[in-house]
Amino acid sequence: MKDWLTEYKEQAEEIRKLYPKLPIPDNWTHGLYNAICEEQILTEFITQTVDVDKTIQQICNRFKDDFEKYEIQNDVIYLTFLKSQFDNIKQVNEFMDAFGWFPAMISREKYSLDTLNEKIKSANIIIIKYECKYDTKVIPTTDYLYHLVPDILYKRVMMNGLTPKNKSKLSNHPERVYLLNPTSDDDYEDIAITLFNAYPSSTQEHIVNFCLLQIDIKKMKLFNFYNDPNFHMGNGGLWVYENIPPAYITLIKKIEVNPKRPI
Fold it and tell me: CA–CA separation, 154 vs 249, rounded Å?
């Protein structure tokens, strides 16, 4: 039977195989690995999105006076609130979350939910768009998927891996790691530029390149992959909730997105 110290050292060695850049002292390895794992959104593994028709039926039964009207377009739900109903938005959002729907934007103008309180102060009407929190689970048909990350985050990724909190997001989705299906070099460049433009100018001035990372999904046998129905660039994409260790990641190339910034 192994003593606890031998087992502790063996666990640290296994961690360093997945995260080669973590420091050698075993206690540091365990400590940093625990910190990485704590960044994951573990509650996201639990449920699934309730069918759109059932959701509408329930929300109309429970909250019929708390919003003005609903609309369904391509399995997306829009709820309209008048000023007199703004106080009800929080409880409606909590109900929608329990049914597996999240508020992706407000007022059809790509405002994030971070601006909701500001909009409430000045608006007379608010339309909230709710999207599926749990997309369709899929089995990838390729050995490799891809991810684009700005150069300012590359060193962190190669130490900690890709976690749900290390991300560039094009909309207000829950924390996930987004992956690209294989596509052309031109598509990767277009996607890199789109991601770059999504950053505030104060961050853009520190970025020169986006790093194209190849993810070896042959090693990710226990991962759950979900289709990303909202991403239409290149050949589309998938996402996962789990952290992707550096041992699964290879740098393919760098794509220049900010040639005006001196290196």
Answer: 11
Q: Is the pTM higher than 0.85?
A: no
Mean pLDDT over each residue of the chain, to the nearest integer: 84
**CA–CA separation, 125 vs 160, rounded Å?**
43
Q: Are residues 149 and 61 in the same domain?
A: no
Residue 43 maps to a domain: no
Radius of gyration of the chain (CA): 21
Q: Which residues contact 46 (CB under 8 A, 6 or more apart)?
A: none
Please report the beta strands in the chain, taking only residues with DSSP state E, as ranges in sequence order: 69-73, 76-82, 101-106, 125-132, 137-138, 144-150, 177-180, 209-216, 225-228, 237-240, 249-256
Q: Is 100 domain-assigned?
A: yes
Please check whether residue 44 lies inside any domain of the structure.
no
Overall average pLDDT of the 127-146 stretch: 87
pLDDT greater than 50 at residue 78:
yes
**Distance, CA of 131 to chain centre:** 14
119 and 143 share one domain: no
Please give the residue range of the domain that contains residue 14: 4-37
pLDDT in tens, 43-67: 444 457 888 888 998 899 888 899 9
Residue 17, domain member (yes or no): yes
